[in-house]
Amino acid sequence: MSLLLSLFVALLVVVATFAEQKVPLPDHIVQGTFPKGFKFGVSTSSYQVEGGWLEGGKGMSTWDALSHIPGTIANGDTGDVANDMYHLYPQDIELMQKMNVKNYRFSIAWNRILPRGVGDVSKEGLAYYNDLINKLLEHGVEPHVTIYHSETPLALTMYPYNPNPFLDHENFPTWFSNFANVLFENFGDRVKTWFTFNEPLCSSIYGPVGDVDPYNVAHGAILAHAATVNLYRTQYQAKQGGKIGIVLNTAHFYPNDPSNPDDVKAAQRGYDYWYGFFLDPLVKGYYPQSMVETAGSRMPTFTDEQVALVKGSLDFVAINYYFPYVTTPGTFSSNDAPSYYKDMNTTTGFGTWPLSQTGWGIYGPGLRDLLIYTKDNYGNIPTYITENGLAWQEDNVTVAINDVQRQQYLHDHIQAVGDAVAAGCDVRGYFVWSFQDNLEWASGYQMHFGLTWIDRPSMKRVVKNSFRYYSSIMEYFFGKH
What we know:
By secondary structure, the chain is α/β, with parallel strands linked by helices. It has helices at about 5-20, 45-50, 60-65, 85-100, 110-115, 125-140, 170-185, 200-205, 215-235, 235-240, 260-285, 290-295, 305-310, 340-345, 365-375, 395-400, 405-420, 465-480, and strands at about 20-25, 35, 40-45, 105, 140-150, 195-200, 245-250, 250-255, 315-320, 325-330, 345-350, 385, 425-435, 450-455, 460-465. It is globular and about 55 Å long.
């Protein structure tokens, strides 16, 4: 056989194999064709669902403290009990299995493993998460672990430490990677997907004040992420066979008038200040030029050694997406005090799109366009959608069960992911936020994102119709494997 013919035959084999790796969903459920190994799943985070705040040797977190300050959380809600998953996880896992869930993303509370953030490891904490992971696997559910999801051990914020540990660029990367090391060592034989930080943008701009701290908090998160990825790659990845990345939250930014250069520049600034703020350093080794030019000396810099660690320090990027923005230039003036928001100087809105309970615009194609933007600007890096979902006003269980708006939202956004895959985007998973109604931070329990209604105080789980719809997608897709 000639070399040319051999190459032609090999190409046919590759094409045929690739075709076999695609699974189309039935049009009556949702249009879209997804890679055979695609991960449909659901997400939660520890503080929002676990409870058990004084059990199992757990230390306090910043949210444990904040939630007990009157007025911090709506209706005086706290995460003390949350959804009581600390005790009820066996029945929750049984529900996952019943509803065809095969991928579950959750976070491990730093302060449940290391009660003071550093030092002694809690055997009870390890036992809890070991049993959670084992029961997931026994029920055919793959664990996907977020190492940090908005919970900082309270002890690390007390004297003699910096009240915001992220600002301690010398010590925080070590503290965080040491915590991660405990997780890799104890759970890495079974956990194959790791996310270092969830939404570090929120940690950077919600809470830190002034015109410098938001940039330095983000810098601290990036350094800690890079140190942790380096640890995993050098000591664990080869023998455990997992992947590690980061979860970033972003909108898609549409210029209000695509023919107006000022609107186009404003949309790009939106992307730079939300998404490129983290993904540019992790992929390219430097911050977006628009940020450097605007913030000037307030923008931290990387040493050559840090660039070597930061650049390329992810096997994939994960995205939390809920809405897009329509964008125009901002209205800040030279007389306004310096700030992150003045630097970005972008006005955003939702145009004529319908709004969710959170007041966010609902527009599925924005997710497709975000994924295409990621492909075009970051070398088609492997991508997961780790949060996507709809908050809707649900005042009672009857309204919650018949959540037609959420069903439509899921339909439109899953179809948007399928459209992105068809456009060549390397998307590998889609996780709904959230598996259950939970404590939505300062909004408390009044904000309903869940596929499952939680009856309080009985803690009875009630499946919503959106979960049945999503279950039908997973049943069909996984049944074709």
